Amino acid sequence: AQKITQTQPGMFVQEKEAVTLDCTYDTSDPSYGLFWYKQPSSGEMIFLIYQGSYDQQNATEGRYSLNFQKARKSANLVISASQLGDSAMYFCAMREGRANFNKFYFGSGTKLNVKP
Amino acid sequence: NAGVTQTPKFQVLKTGQSMTLQCAQDMNHNSMYWYRQDPGMGLRLIYYSASEGTTDKGEVPNGYNVSRLNKREFSLRLESAAPSQTSVYFCASRLGQPNEKLFFGSGTQLSVL
Question: By CA distance, what is A52's nearest residue in B?
Answer without folding.
Answer: B99
